[in-house]
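Exercise (ungraded).
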Amino acid sequence: MYSDLLHALPDVFAWTNFAAVVIGVIAGIVVGAMPGLSATMAISVLVPFTFGLEPLVALGLMAGIYNGAMYGGAIPAVLLRIPGTPAAVATTFDGYPMAQKGEGGFALQVAVVSSSIGGIASAFALMLLAPPLSKVTLLFGPSEVFWVAVFGLASIIFLLGGNPIKGLISACFGVFVSVIGSDPIYGNDRFTFGQLEMLDGINIVILLVGLYALPPVIDLLETPLKTDGVNSSKLGTEPIWKALPRMNYWKTWLRGSFLGIWIGILPGAGGSMAAFMSYNEARRTSKHPETWGEGEPEGVAAAEVANNADTASALIPALTLGIPGTAVAAVMLGGLLVHGLQPGPMLFRDNPDIVFGFMWQFLFGAILLVLLGGSLATNSFARLLNLPRPLLGSVIIVLMLIGVYSIHGRMFDVYLMLGFGAIGWVMDRLKFPLPPVVLGLILGGFAEENLRLALRIGRGDPLVLFQNTTSLILVALTVAVVVGPTLKKRFIDSRKKA
Amino acid sequence: MLNIFKKSAIAGAMILSAGAALAEYPEKPIEVIVGYSAGGGTDVMARTAAPFIEKYLGDGASLVVKNMPGASGQIGVTEAANADPDGYTLGTFNLPGMMARTIDREAGYDRDSFTYLANVVNDPNVIVTSKESGLDTLDKLLEEAKANPLAVTVGMSSLGGDDHFALIKLQQATDTEYTIVPFKGSAPARTALLGGHVAMGILNISEVAEFQDQLNVLGVATNERSQFAPDLPTFKEQGLDLVNGSMRGFIAPAGLPEDVQAKLIDAFSQLSDDQEFLDAMAATANPIEVVTGEEFKQLTSDLYDLANSVWQTTPWN
């Protein structure tokens, strides 16, 4: 196998194949940075064109776009508090406060270096450990996947932000949105009001753009004449090699990579859950957790390393079992099928040069990110912030409308997005946290579908949910997340009294 | 005078253009509506077939694939059914799904909405069991299912699809009962089988070809051994009359001009003898069975009747 890996290397450096990765990374950063455009969308637009391309050119473009977009999402998250992709939500927590303090440039550099490290770790996991890690995926049947989703939801509700009740309400709203569309088992319509457009449920990008992009834009437009706040002259940019020594986040990078790879190989959860988990863990173990949420660079590092660490690893179940770990991996699977690459155990044997070449392209895509991403972000995107605020706000609104319209090419989605925007604005004002809504939509559907499948397997007996070690470990973790903070507080209080 | 001249000129132009349309179809690009996103099985079939259809239509014909995903292909096929029947809009068609949808929900089309051109792919069902189940022959499986009704869990893709109809045929033919576990798609069902979370699965031959070492493949639901995997025995060989599969083909709106229909069907019918096409389809795991025109229409009608009779006795939602 390792000789196959080396054998595939020369093809990767054929200039067309290499250029494809470079173009992909740049395109991915741009797409990721635009609110409303996502890697999933960019790659689905690309797939029909790849019929006429050489496999490694097509796959190189995809690998580049995927890597680029996962970092690109951080750019507006840091500069405007608008996550460019669902996975960049956690990046806003500390990235935006940093930008307000005039450290936006450093935040972007931390983001690009962390993204790159996560991507490299993930690519190595894909290259070296794909077969053994795919066995891990097999351990996760419906009941285990159900508990993963519950654990993810519990973490976001109870660990993030100060008010679990508000978090729970937000999460319930997200889970409700996940219920809209066809019933996953019987196919009955639920809350679709007879609209064919709603049969497939609510696309996550529509919700994300509405909730997250509209409120900050309204803020921008409310204070058109103020000149303070972020602008690129205050970005505090210094060359990246000078900034590097300030980044001493090895533990966070290591843990974030591990979490990202791990969550990537589980079906469904994907980058946003990885980023939240990594952020939570890094904050929990930090020596000064009180600075988190107020511009702690390590928070940006934690989120960005994890949301890139699931990129290549999400392809492990996709390539070996045909089940994609993320929406992007699902679209990429289509791109592979187009070239006659059937997922399965034979794939690595039948087409080693292409499959391993693709993995190398992932690795080089992640490395190129530092070289291309750093300067692109600080030299071009950050300059957008010099625009007068009414203009900047209008530009973002136009991008949002175009992005959402282009998902399926219909106005219905645009109206839906504006509706979510209104809800998001109200929630923002009432200090309801928005991340649980996003995760509620992503994980709610998984929880429901897998709960129902598990109960069918158990023929209605709920004990089926507790029948093996993996499930029980996940149950224990969930319980710890729910009651842990309260117990810890009591413990500290009683020590104080004593 | 001028008026008469004008009128005759217009009439002349109309006759000319009508004549041109008859003689020269296709004179502009033909759109093929695929009800699924790019890169899916139906999309790959359409895009693989397109250049060959162009070749057989001749005269610089050009097919443009347009993806209209959503609602399990409903949005796309409804669009194709309602298009102008001029031969410039075709659509892909999946069986038994497209017919089952007219039964289990309100659909914007029925079996008379189409001109049936050709079915191209027939991916037969297979029954597989997980290695952990120990049910490594058809006899052992049936014995277990008879001894413990509903104890055998069956992973498959959604209800009302070809997998489901295959299971119903199996239940009726062998007088057994199973617990259905309908996953969202075949790949998750196959993964649950590999992990031993369900005991048995109903999938399609293209979906298990790469996994023959990891699963027990008990039989193929065809009349004769599939060219696609000739080592696998049919159920008929084992004394069980079970034939079922997932089919994909091409339709046009009802009311296509006869000469256009004839030209299209002629082009499609040449596919089955084109080795280059057969190779391209084999590479993308698409077992071929070309059935054209009236025969295709009859096939659709039969499947509708089957789905309808199943729905009457055991509705699936």
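Further reading is listed at the end of the chapter. For now, observe: Strands of chain A lie at 181-182, 189-190. The CA atoms of residues 447 and 454 of chain A lie 10 Å apart.
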